[in-house]
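Kindly go through one protein, given below as sequence and tokens. The question is how this chain folds according to its tokens.

***
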Amino acid sequence: MPCLDISTNVSLDGVDTDSIFSEATKAVASIIGKPENFVMVLLKGSVAISFGGNKEPAAFAEIVSMGGINSQVKKQLIFTIGTILQDKLSISRSRFFLKVYDTTVGRNNNSKL
């Protein structure tokens, strides 16, 4: 079950968050290869975030998945989630950080980052 947790210093008042949830859910499911009904997305706005020493629009996100993560998937997630945040919340790609974590790494499987 992939879980995408997004925090931003941008206020979500008046923002169409439904489209963010929808696009992020579809993107994560498609990129990782899991069914949409297994994807969880959390979105928190107005979080105190300083990036590069200033408080201009920025976001931190973390995605945790049980399998399905490799270096190509990681790059696609960063690009796609960054695009959604840029389009929907006007957060520059240079002010977005995504932490990707596969819970199966280190177990006896063939998954490598």
In short: The helical segments are 17-32, 71-89. The chain has a mean pLDDT of 93. The chain is about 30% helix and 20% strand.
